[in-house]
Write a structure and sequence with these properties.
alpha+beta, Jelly Rolls, 3 helices, 10 strands
């Protein structure tokens, strides 16, 4: 079981534009048993145009596709995507991502290591703002409680590899 990590060299160049596009999305929080997220597009209609995703896919995803297609000798297809913004005391509890081979987290805003995705029964992953981590979708993971006063923003997507 391998967790892939890619540091996007152009992250700083695109960060503000991505955050501006996310700011244009409706403010839809998630609050339920096991999670509280300040803003997300998870519950928006599938037909809602996610301009941040188009920008992200067109400007930053090439290194992801290159690594995955080379490593797994197939064609990577992204199945779904969303963003989450976590403010103080927000978190997302233990979960998996069914119906996909891989899940990926792009750290658009990340103030420190204490906010990086945690995996059950695996060592701590070291990641920083501008990184994409990709892992088997069946791995149990969570977003830890944000005990900082800074916002954490992630773009998450699921993918599968086909021959």
């Amino acid at each position: 079981m391998k967790i892939h990590q890619i540091s996007l060299k152009n992250h700083k160049k695109h960060k503000t534009a991505l955050l501006d596009l996310i700011d244009q999305c409706p403010n839809v929080p998630i609050s339920g048993k096991g999670e509280t997220v300040d803003k997300s597009d998870w519950f928006l209609n599938q037909g809602y145009e996610r301009h941040y995703w188009n920008y992200f896919a067109n400007n930053l995803l090439e290194p992801f596709y290159t690594k995955m297609n080379k490593t797994y000798k197939g064609s990577t297809q992204i199945k779904n995507y969303w963003f989450h913004q976590y403010t103080t005391k927000d978190y997302y509890g233990w979960h998996t991502h069914p119906d996909s081979h891989f899940s990926s987290v792009y750290y658009l805003e990340l103030s420190g290591q204490e906010l990086v995705t945690e995996f059950k029964d695996l060592p701590t992953i070291k990641a920083k703002e501008g990184d994409i981590i990709t892992f088997p979708a069946y791995l149990i993971h969570k977003s830890p409680i944000n005990l900082t006063k800074t916002r954490k923003t992630v773009i998450v997507f699921n993918s599968s590899i086909w021959p």
